[in-house]
Design brief:
By secondary structure, the protein is mainly α. The protein has helices at residues 22-48, 52-78, 102-123, 130-156, 192-218, 222-248, 271-295, 299-325, 338-343. Helix 1 (22-48) runs antiparallel to helix 2 and helix 3 crosses helix 5. The protein is globular. It starts with 21 loop residues before the first helix and ends with a helix.
Length: 345
Amino acid sequence: MYTLKPIKLTSSKTNTTEPLTSSEMGKLWATYMGNSMAKCILSYFLQHVEDEDIKTLVENAYNLSVDFMEIITGIFEKENFPIPKGFGKEDVNPSAPRLFQDEFYVHYLKYTAKAGTSIYTVAYPLVYRNDVKEFFNYCLDSTKALMDQIKEILLNKGFIIKPPIIPVPEKVEFVHKDFLNGFLGHVRPMQALEIIHLYDNIENGVASKALIMAFAQVAKNEKIRDLFERGRNLTHSNLERYMKKLHDENLPSPSFLDHLVTTSTFSPFSDKIMLYHKMDMFSMKMRAFGNAVAVSARHDFGLLYSRSLINIQGFVEDAAEIYIENGWMEKPPYAADRGNIASDK
């Protein structure tokens, strides 16, 4: 394997005495909030997990969340940056009855680890200060290690099927003008990138649907419960369309996970943390749809994901309005309001 040649440059622009940039503030703040939520959710999972391998996995994920928060706290304190409130003991009831079966915890962690990897991958090229850069590199490495454990458990315990197998090409070929067709004329079979993004969106969707179904089952606020039910229904509709695409070409898809949710109606979580969680998950879906559209050439895929994007965006906006109405939304770091500064003089 090729090893990069060293470039011998030194710069004061990356040392820890430099002020945090907007990208560093924003990504650290978002990472703190996400792991604050994860710490609460995982602390509840740990109360009920019975399978020893899955218990170790959940413990590893919980300890990483705690570690990430402690490192960010150290950076923020050095900058006199206020520590976000995030989520705490008031947002979780560890003694609540079991809401999920052990297997769900593994699927859930795969979904959230994928989301974390995406956040850290986007952050790394945008940060320059050495301590922040090292932090996000650590986040990436440790989350990838966790993902390896997740995949081992999923495969060895028979919880998942691998992405579809397709034939190895016999030779290099070039496409014809019907390559983009999705509705009229000759429609070609799906190519590999279209298949895997469908598979990925289904895999994410079945975990998301089971989680929001559980949240709708236990939410106390009627308005929030109705929103969760709407989110469950639109997720189910999206999944049916994605699965049909694969099944129409005789390709397998991941299965629903609804059976891994118990019938308990006693909430282990506050409405605040559940609503934040679903806003966050649905926002990640919008990013996943964009990634899928970027590599899907057939016209029917553009329409498929655009329709999903519009529905999901509507859910996120309505969820944000409820979150703000309840006084729950913390302000992220933001630019100076130059207009008001000028008008005050």
